[in-house]
Automatic annotation (TrEMBL):
One of its GO terms (molecular function) is diacylglycerol O-acyltransferase activity. This is O-acyltransferase WSD1-like N-terminal domain-containing protein. Keywords: Membrane, Transmembrane, Transmembrane helix. Residues 92-266 form the O-acyltransferase WSD1-like N-terminal domain. The chain crosses the membrane at residues 12-36. Signal peptide: none annotated. GO terms for biological process: glycerolipid biosynthetic process. The lineage of its organism: Eukaryota, Metazoa, Ecdysozoa, Arthropoda, Hexapoda.
Length: 500
């Protein structure tokens, strides 16, 4: 095993040297792309006064396709269930008070009045002159396309979320909406509740931006767990504190880290083969106390993240067995890493994260060996240089016309990646929207083009939910796909049984 690891590291160093040479030779191409991009921006300023700046970095990577076609973009959906009745009229009133009447917040959230389009091969923000709040904050009105019975229950809402995930957006309208459903039956406490479904194109914002918007709308201040690393007076909270010497060493290591992150794409094995369909289903686990995952992490002396990935990997193995698919020894997963935590998020509507592919063992016995291997793999993608390498690739890619970025993205996602995982933390305190208690939270991160499965965690009241957004081609069995939520719930309990 040690000989194999040493040979693997040597191969990565050789590849890193080759990669560095290739990148040096590509400098003229990158500089030419930057010059052409600047020229396009100048032309847009002269001839397209309706455009309001280029899409950049991660936002440019998310906005490579027009969102006016179904299943053509990545949507985020957050469904909160409130104890009480909150009407669209009341929410619109709050929006007018908190955003329209407040010049500072109006500027901070100006993307709420923007969509995006393409001009000469590049994505641009586009101002919507006919913005109307009733087009965005309204009663659920997709009843003909995605029927909701009256009265409906939580199970009916979850079925609708699968349809909303791939729903296209209206042309010339900012891609976000807050849909309100009153009279949702509460099977646990009796009576009815309100469901708020916030849906947006991921190009507009990330998860922390959504919470920032909701906090501003309802006058809240949501806090998330964890200490803020590197927090010092006068410094931006949530940013990693790195010495100059460490930065220099890590900068030299960027080619090696970049090659390491590309290995899972090249050598990774997929769960499925063939072309993905447009049939996508969203499946949710029952609510799970956060302390259960923390207990697993504490006992095996690993990070909370490793505990989550352990349960995900073992669940996917059980799903492959259930679907009669051969278990792949190592699966290629794309991990979404926030640049800063909730306290260090810059605010407004931004996308502050990077993605790193990694190879993770699917199923190993005993559990202790499995979770430590996962922890080792995850620790390799946490370093400063891996993040910088990923951001460099994203920044450099945004300089090129969109057809070239689509081509590269197509190759990467078709070749080795099976799924993406985003671990979003659960707020540390109970949540209230306009005085109404949040009783349940269901998150959805939609599939994006050729990524067939997105796994997301989120929650409220110290309880998390695992959300699986799965293309039908992944397991090729709707029965297996529908079981995923229960499978991971059972797997967590099975892992807990290994703890004395």
């Amino acid at each position: 095993m040690k000989v194999r690891e040493q040979a693997g590291k040597l191969a990565k160093w050789i590849a890193a040297i080759v990669y560095s040479i290739l990148m040096i030779t590509q400098i003229p191409a990158i500089l030419s792309a930057i010059i052409f991009r600047s020229f396009v921006a100048l032309l847009a300023k002269c001839f397209r006064p309706d455009l309001d700046g280029l899409l950049w970095s991660t936002t440019a990577a998310l906005g490579m396709y027009l969102n006016t076609k179904p299943h053509n973009n990545c949507n985020i959906i957050c469904a909160w269930f409130l104890r009480g009745e909150l009407t669209p009229q009341r929410v619109r009133q709050l929006f007018m008070e908190r955003f329209t009447s407040n010049e500072r917040e109006n500027l901070k959230y100006k993307k709420l009045r923007q969509s995006y389009t393409f001009f000469l091969g590049y994505g641009f923000w586009k101002r919507n002159t006919d913005f109307g709040i009733s087009n965005h904050i309204r009663e659920y009105d997709y009843r003909e396309e995605m029927e909701l019975p009256e009265p409906c229950n939580v199970e009916n809402i979850t079925e609708v979320l699968s349809e909303l995930e791939g729903k296209e957006w209206r042309e010339n309208q900012s891609p976000w909406e807050l849909l309100i459903v009153n009279g949702v039956l509460d099977s646990k406490r009796g009576g009815t509740q309100t469901c708020l479904m916030f849906r947006c194109d991921h190009t507009l914002m990330d998860g922390y931006s959504i919470y920032g918007f909701i906090d501003t709308l309802f006058g809240n201040k949501t806090t998330f767990p964890g200490k803020t690393p590197g927090k010092t007076p006068g410094k931006t909270p949530g940013k990693m504190k790195v010495s100059i010497a460490e930065k220099l060493r890590e900068f030299i290591m960027i080619p090696y880290a970049t090659v390491s992150s590309l290995v899972p794409i090249v050598l990774g094995k997929k769960i499925y083969n063939g072309k993905l369909s447009n049939d996508v289903r969203c499946v949710f686990s029952p609510t799970i106390p956060v302390d259960r995952i923390k207990r697993i992490a504490r006992f095996y002396n690993v990070s909370y993240k490793a505990g989550v990935y352990l349960c995900i990997q073992r669940t996917l193995a059980k799903a492959m067995i259930d679907a009669k698919i051969p278990i792949v020894e190592n699966l290629s997963a794309c991990s979404i890493e926030p640049i800063s935590n909730g306290m260090g998020h810059p605010g407004g509507l931004v996308n502050e994260f990077y993605t790193v592919p990694t190879l993770l063992p699917t199923f190993i016995e005993p559990v202790s060996r499995h979770v430590r291997q996962i922890e080792k793999r995850l620790s390799e993608i946490k370093s400063w240089n891996v993040g910088l390498g990923s951001k460099y690739l994203t920044h450099a890619g945004a300089c090129f016309p969109v057809f070239l970025r689509r081509f590269f993205f197509d190759i990467c996602t078709r070749y080795g990646l099976s799924y993406t995982v985003s671990i979003f933390p659960c707020p540390t305190q109970p949540e209230y929207f306009d005085g109404f208690e949040v009783t349940k939270f269901l998150p959805v991160l939609g599939t994006y083009r050729f990524l067939g499965m997105i796994i997301l965690t989120g929650g409220t009241n110290h309880e998390i939910v695992f959300s699986f957004c799965v293309n039908s081609m992944i397991f090729q069995s709707e029965e297996t796909t529908r079981k995923l939520g229960d499978l991971i719930y059972d797997e967590i309990n099975e892992v807990l049984k290994t703890i004395p």
